[in-house]
Design a protein that fits this description.
With 201 residues, the chain is an alpha/beta fold. Helix content is 33%, strand content 16%. It has one domain: Aconitase, domain 4, CATH 3.20.19.10. The radius of gyration is 19 Å and the shape is globular.
Length: 201
C-alpha cells in the first residue's frame, strides 16, 4: 500500500449527502477482484449518460477537476453496502483523501486499509473547504497527516483528528498484510518452535 504523508492537490466539491457505495461504484462493476481499472466507472451513473457519454455538468468531468486528488463532500459518505470496491474505485481514479462531516463506519475503515485518508470535520469547516474547492484549478489544498492539518489556498489551516493506529498504518503504507509482515520474524520463530515440539504435525 502506498504511504500517505503529505498530499497537495486539487480539491473537488461534491455537496451531496448520503452518497452510498452504489453511487460510488455501481453493482455491475463488482465482478472483478482487481483493485485497478475501476476508476473509469467511479460515480458511473452521475458521470455518464445512458449512451456512455460524459455528463459535462458532473464535477469530475469538468476540466479543472479531472485530476482532483481530494474530494470534499456531504455527511454520511460511503453509506449503503460494505463493498470494498468503493475505495478501490476512488483510489484508481486518483482520490487519496475524502473530507466530509461524517462517514459510514465500514467505508471509513476500508479507506484506511486501501491508502485513502478519510477526514471527518464539523460542517462549518467542511463548508469552508467546499468554498475553497469551488475555485476550480486554484483550489489547491494540502493535507498533512503527520501534523494533522489541512491548509487551504488562502493559507488558513484546519486541524483534524485521526486514530493513532490508523495514522501509523497510513504513514507507513501498512495494510493488514503489511502489518502481519512486520511480525514475520516472530511468526517464523513460532513456526520453528512448534515444528520442533510437534514434528508429527
Amino acid at each position: 500500500m502506498e504511504k500517505f504523508t503529505k498530499l497537495t492537490g486539487i480539491a473537488a466539491p461534491m455537496p451531496l449527502v448520503n452518497i452510498d457505495t452504489d453511487m460510488i461504484i455501481p453493482k455491475q462493476f463488482l465482478k472483478t477482484i482487481k483493485r485497478s481499472g475501476l476508476g473509469v466507472s467511479l460515480f458511473d451513473e452521475m458521470r455518464y449518460d445512458r449512451q456512455g457519454n460524459e455528463n459535462p455538468d458532473f464535477v469530475l468531468n469538468k476540466p479543472q477537476y479531472r485530476d482532483a486528488q481530494i474530494l470534499v463532500t456531504g455527511e454520511n459518505f460511503g453509506c449503503g453496502s460494505s463493498r470494498e470496491h468503493a475505495p478501490w474505485a476512488l483510489l484508481d481514479f486518483g482520490i487519496r483523501c475524502v473530507i466530509a462531516p461524517s462517514f459510514a463506519d465500514i467505508f471509513y475503515n476500508n479507506c484506511f486499509k486501501n491508502g485513502i485518508l478519510p477526514i471527518a470535520l464539523p460542517q462549518e469547516e467542511v463548508d469552508k473547504l467546499m468554498d475553497d474547492a469551488a475555485r476550480g484549478a486554484n483550489a489547491t489544498v494540502t493535507v498533512d497527516l503527520e501534523n494533522q492539518t489541512i491548509s487551504g489556498p488562502d493559507g488558513g489551516t484546519i486541524s483534524f483528528e485521526v486514530d493513532a493506529f490508523k495514522k501509523h498504518c497510513l504513514l507507513n503504507g501498512l495494510d493488514d498484510i503489511g502489518l502481519s509482515l512486520e511480525k514475520v520474524a516472530s511468526i517464523d520463530a513460532f513456526e520453528a518452535q512448534a515444528s520442533a515440539a510437534r514434528p508429527w504435525v
